[in-house]
Here is the input.
Amino acid sequence: MLKLEIPFVDLYRQYISIKSEIDLAIENVIKETAFIGGKYVKQFELDFSNWLSIKNVVACANGTDSMEIILKAWNIGPGDEVIVPAMTWVSTAEAVSNVGAKPVFVDVDEVYYTIRPDLIEAKINLKTKAIIPVHLYGQCADMPEIMRIAKNNNLKVLEDCAQSHGAVIDGKIAGTWGDAASFSFYPGKNLGSYGDAGCIASNDDELAELCRIIANHGQKGKHNNFMIGRNSRLDGMQGAILSAKLPFLNGWNEKRILVADYFNNNIDKTLYQLPESRKNGKHVFHVYVLICKGDRNKVISELSKMGIASSVHYPNELPYTKPYYSEEVFNISRKLAKQSISIPIFAELTENELSYIVNILNGIS
Ligand SMILES: *Cc1c(COP(=O)(O)O)cnc(C)c1O
Here is the structure.
């Protein structure tokens, strides 16, 4: 077999496929020197709100900020608790900590890897103010059940959609279930900018206005300093690039799903536990995570020897990291941390690359 070099993601391949659109977007921003905020950011907010079918989109500097800004707008802070999954990117808990509240961890489900609703209820007390479900790896958390629990307990729901642009459950797209949603457009996400970017999405007009104020130095319009805010503005360049890329997002997601189907149908299930998609949903495979039944280190090194990049999402569950260390055990999060690997998945992978990845994986024993 001829050795191939397959990167984990290849954003240059994607750029080449839409070069004229991207180059034009960048040129326009420079021509009009619309560098911070301005018309291209406004346009992207409109484009993304139409795509998501939501009333308000507020662009900001990154996905982590968008969560922190929403929590601040809800006046969540010291003395409050917010429920988050134990297995997620650190931002989910970091945003809670950075407003002065306490993240309370809940394990994820062993089949879909999203936060377990039945375990959420046991963690709710008088201090609990919100739940942040994460649509991890590109698949929706159990939103119908989470919304029911939130309603019964008078809690806010902030959906962390950083990995789930376009994911659906029960016919409803991720980001439109909760009281507010946070999106990241970090370059490697399903919709990625060429730098840092994020947004807040909500049907709540008052919340969206308050978030906009917080993200722009607490100003309600120019020089009307209304409260203490921060600088979390989005660059015009990122807005223009995101608007140029958005029309391709659904097609890219469909290709990711085809790649995942190929992996699901061809990877040896005696060696790996493969990801499962909810029957009532659409998984958009931000990452393709499999559990190694054998020695994970060996799998990683064999893949690497054969030119295939892989990653781990994530090597530690958050309550096992130094800032959040706890004695409590989160079994499924631990299993993902210690036995999972993520293999390349992106729209531009060729059939030849896919069969190469599968052949190598299936040959490791
Ligand atoms: C990427 C990511 C974020 C944060 O996004 P940034 O734009 O990098 O700040 C938050 N949550 C999850 C689950 C993510 O994967």
Q: What stands out?
A: The longest strand covers residues 56-60. The radius of gyration is 21 Å.
